[in-house]
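B., you asked whether I could sanity-check this one before it goes into the benchmark set. Here's the sequence:
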Amino acid sequence: MAKLLMKGNEAIAEAAIRAGCRCFFGYPITPQNQIPEYMSKRMPQVGGTFLQAESEVSAINMVYGASGAGARVMTSSSGPGVSLKQEGISYLAGAQLPCVIVNIMRGGPGLGSIQPSQGDYYQATRGGGHGDYRLPVLAPSSVGEAVELTRKAFDLADKYRTPVIVLGDGMIGQMMEPVELPDDGESAREPESKPWAARGWDGSSPRAIINSLYIDPSVLEQHNLALQRKFAEIEKAETSFASERVEDADLVIAAYGTMARIARSAIRMARAEGLKVGMIRPVTLWPFPSEPFAQAARTAKAFLTVEMSAGQMVDDVRLAVAGRKPVHFYGRTGGMVPTVRDVLSRIKEAV
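And here's what the prediction gave me:
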């Protein structure tokens, strides 16, 4: 295990390589540019393939091809680029092809800004593309956790044959923190066999056909029902969260990613002033950890969702609490980052 000081984007890229990723297709966009830059250097060193596509649309379709051939493959982008990838992501979900998609969020909508944001929550957790599908979405709150969740994303992708999103923001991508990286291959738990992959055919087994087109509506419905069963299995087995000082809390904060770090400092200051405040931090944004919020609603007096958006995750918190307690919201948009004092002020208004 190697301990290094790394920028978030570069740590994500290295974690992917050490998890067995050998194909990367992408296109530059701030604030994730260090991921393809790092991959362009490292992939040839490990016998992998790096290709800067002519567009995000091209990149995601290259991911489709590499995944269909059984490779561990990743792409990365930011909000506008991920928007362009949505058709391909829907195709990947429909064809049940595993891959990892990293989104280092920036301000939007449109070209927006290059500053940190959490405005892509809806895009990530509601599918984003056409049709009935969901994707596991992992939200790191530190560079070290980004390494851990990137490795996990590849394992989940192969386990469930699905694209998996690692959703960070500009701060996660650009900050530098100490990380522990496994030795090469230590965390690469790629399945030894992928019988579904199109790797050539010698006539000894059924052909592997990669497809998301079903002309017969009854056949497509059965395919969709099978997908829904898979999504239910993911919800049951893969929900993840972290909680802090919730047991006696009158007010429970909901926050994810780097926003949770800011909220944590505000909670410490609130506690020092005698205010009973705790936090639930979703690590998987989908599946969303509804049950911890439902349990907290039995004892807490209110909730406060804090986001770098106009209010997106707050919808899932309200669904989880189901009207039993008030759910307040505080957010900043456009790349503006709430300060600890801002959050503390909102805490005092909500308790």
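One thing to flag: Residues 2-190+215-238 form a domain with the Rossmann fold fold (CATH 3.40.50.970). Otherwise nothing jumped out at me.
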